[in-house]
Amino acid sequence: MAALTTKNIGGFLARQGIIVAFVLFMIGFALANDRFITMDNIFGVIRSSAILGVMALGVTFVVIGGNLDLSVGSMMSFSTIVVLDLHDKLGPALGIPAMYGMTLALGAFIGFLVGYLKLNSLIVTLGMLSAIHGLTLTYSGGKNMDIADKEGTWFGIFGQGSILGVPVPILIFALLAVVLSMVLAKTPFGRKVYAVGGNGMAATFSGVPRARVVFMTYLISAFCVATAGLIQASRSLGSQNTVGQGMELEVLAAVILGGASLLGGSGTVFKTVIGVLILGFIQNGLLLVGLEFYVQYVVTWVIIILAVWLDIAAKRGRLLSPIA
Fold first, then answer.
1. In terms of residue numbers, what domain contains 47?
2. Which are the contacts of 208, defined by CB distance < 8 A and separation ≥ 6?
3. Running DSSP on this structure, what letter comes out for residue 320?
């Protein structure tokens, strides 16, 4: 039997660490509180994590493609406010497509700057975070949005409805995860995303249209953000104009925790889903064991550090630095 070394452990954790962590978290919290593993609690956690999860699915494409998207939080606020406003002005049948069109236009603009103009994605999306936040406040006049007739609309089905006992937000999250997983793993476009993120220069010389691929990853991200905004608006039929503020950190944490490399070229939709669930169940478990909600911020920070550490371990094949 081969000797157990830090290199062996590092290689195993790089491949399956997220699954191991998920199982350990579930077992630990289940032992700490018998309500943790009940079906009602599990459905509640997944439902509350659906908005974050839907956004993380799109950002997974961006990160695998070798870029970042820090604008998703403010873009989700924009989508939520716009669809609520257009619901009363145009009706939900027209307001929803219009909101998707406006959000996709923002994603296309970011994709053009990063993909075709080859600007740094961190700088572009950090700037767009502020710009879209300002756009949201301008659009709403600095006010929060509420649907006027909350009793006479079918709009609430996206955030409040259920089908065969399963909440609609969970079904939307699951459906998007399945479709996008197939796109990433089974289509030529998915292979191009991995190629561009792994080695953009080599991909370009191999005939892969790098600019177009990067552009499309931001469109996918914007589509997912619009869907998250739709769920958020439908959940309470009203919203603050800063509802998505700060969510970009949680989204990125879930994606990186799921194994997508910050350097690009690796990651899967399935493991992003696991990363989202880990964050959701950790927050829920901490509350059930009696810890205050603000402890979640510290735990999230620790998780991000561990995720980045495992990401680096995956690249060098060991947990510790060669010079340690």
1. 41-315
2. 192, 195, 196
3. S
